[in-house]
Structure formats: C-alpha cells, structure tokens
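Module 6 notes. Inverse folding takes a fixed backbone as the condition and produces residue identities as the prediction. Think of it as a translation problem where the source language is geometry and the target language is the twenty amino acids. Below is one complete input and output pair. Work through it position by position during the lab.
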C-alpha cells in the first residue's frame, strides 16, 4: 500500500479533503495503481511548532519578526 504523508501548518476540513483527493488523483495518474491502494496522512503542526529563519511562524504572523 503506497503511503502519501504531508506535514504542514493547520488547514481546514475542506482543504484537507481537497488535498487528499488531489494527491490521490495525481498518484493514480503517475503510478496507475488503484485508488483504494493509497493511504494519505496529514500531520498538522501548530504555528508555534514551525520555525522559519530562526523564528516561529506564530511570531512571524503576529509581526514579531
């Protein structure tokens, strides 16, 4: 079973559904594996747990950069 794993900041339910559908569709197109073979996992990180340029994304969004 192919596994597609994505780690990103928080997204809403509709975005998750679209991401899962889109990634699965593209993987089917490339591999010709059946749809039921794919497992997609989404790992969400809070803005305080993501760093960019030495600062948290939370601070960057708040203008504390």
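Target side of the pair, the amino acids:
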């Amino acid at each position: 079973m192919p596994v597609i794993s994505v780690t990103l900041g928080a997204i809403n339910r509709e975005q998750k559904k679209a991401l899962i559908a889109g990634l699965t569709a593209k993987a089917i197109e490339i591999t010709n594996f059946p749809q039921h073979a794919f497992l997609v996992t989404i790992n969400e990180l809070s803005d305080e747990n993501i760093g960019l340029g030495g600062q948290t994304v939370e601070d960057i969004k708040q203008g504390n950069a």
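Reference fact for the lab report: The longest strand covers residues 3-9.
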